[in-house]
User: Fold this.
Amino acid sequence: MYLPGLAQYTLYHMVSLTNKRIVVGVTGSIAAYKSAETVRRLRDAGAEVRVAMTRAATEFITPLTMQALSGHPVHLNLLDAQTESAMGHIELARWADAVLVAPASADFIARIAHGLADDLLSTLCLAARSPLAVAPAMNWQMWDNPATQSNVARLRERGARIFGPGSGSQACGETGPGRMLDPQDLVALLAGMFETGELAGLNVLVTAGPTWESIDPVRVITNRSSGKMGYAVAAAAMEAGARVVLVSGPTALAAPEQVECIRVMTAQEMFDAVMARVDTAQVFIGTAAVADYRPAQAATTKIKKTSATLQLDLVRNPDILASVAARTPAPFTVGFAAETVDVERNAAAKLRAKRVDLIAANLVGQAGSGFEADENRLVLIDASGTTELPLLSKLRAARELIHHIAVRYHAKNPAENPRLAHRQ
Assistant:
């Protein structure tokens, strides 16, 4: 099947799958051979892929093939000791940014439409909170059957994306709708799921990572920020259609695709970089963990260990967040608050003191979230109230944050007639 303009779309948008976590489900259909190419193209697009297969799928393509292409063991059985011990089906559901079932047989569509969970893949689909996409593959008469159409309609009502089917010659020798879309088309459509358009046409300025304040040529004052949350926010803003500039302190992270990244080291350098660009930004998101103080004078040579104590005179660094919020006109300004106690109270106080539009607060110092971790639990506080997000991967938390920002930004600027997401 040829979809007009899809080839150009594919070439341009492949990068939107960079660092995405995709579970590919394979069910019993002759089109299962296409799933191998789909996995390969997903990985070429930058996605990390895990594969889950039904028992019927293994009659058409071997798990060894899918393991070789995905680079990971294939998940087959609900109670498989080998795979379940390493990553159970619930953990796999939580891991995924999206689940793509390709091919999806008529039987499998019927089962998930009715909430059945009698094997690993159907259970995973039921447990996943991430978007679900289904690529039907079956005989045209099965596709046209009212029962199948009813099941597909039910999945659509629940938010599942239905990719295809295409129309053409089929394995049975007949011609009609029911062909699974080609892998490159599936990858392009999956990429489009992450592009909301909520911030289309806007300039977004993001800060991320720690800052380093020199004590001497060897030592610095810094903090435990890895930059992962800020980089995820920049990537999520890009997915939402914004032009993104990321001002980053020292990190070990690669810049997100299609994001302009400016590397700095100190709080003063970050302040200068932000002030040089903030006037062209409609949204500012201060995710960086900026040092509040720096040594009044950095030593020009390494300080030797000659006494039992050492005194450092510290001076305040410029307040980037407050300075941005105080501009006239100011961008929609979002700050982060990393707290160890009384998260909501301290974040609300920061919201008022800095006069920003929104504070995203999180509890740090606990294992599994916050600094250096891959997951985070955010509390979003603004003038309209408090929104608590569950523990999510930082990229998924960033997407939720960007959606929240988009809704609040467009409510504040209604004349721009934005494309608001259907989740509003």
